[in-house]
Protein: Halocyanin
Organism: Haloarcula rubra
Amino acid sequence: MYRRTVLRLGGAGVVGALAGCGGSSDAGDDGPSETRVAMTDDLVFDPKEVTVAVGDTVVWETTGSVAHSATAYEADLPDGAAYFASGDFDSESAARQAYPDGSVGSGETYRHTFETAGEYPYFCIPHESGMRGTVVVE
Ligand SMILES: [Cu+2]
């Protein structure tokens, strides 16, 4: 009799633990995350467009041997959004003038956390004609 009661309580404990696990897992899905964008020797951002949640971080990585930048088009930022550019410049003109300062070399990364919803078109300074991308923040 006593043993049976203990076993039943044990079962309830397991169920409770599993429910707790599921809850924290769901919370983790809603938490901040990182999205990677490769900057390749084909002179593209891969993927070209990424969609992230407010508070998420995008990490750009130069995966080949050619250096790149990830530089926002300042005039096209969502209202109230912070400017971003590899090298952490305050403006597009500053980033352009400083290049190659702010370039991301082979194996290096640049990361930015997006706090404002909207669409962020950006480009690579030395390969601007073809190397452009968009971050969509929802
Ligand atoms: Cu480039």
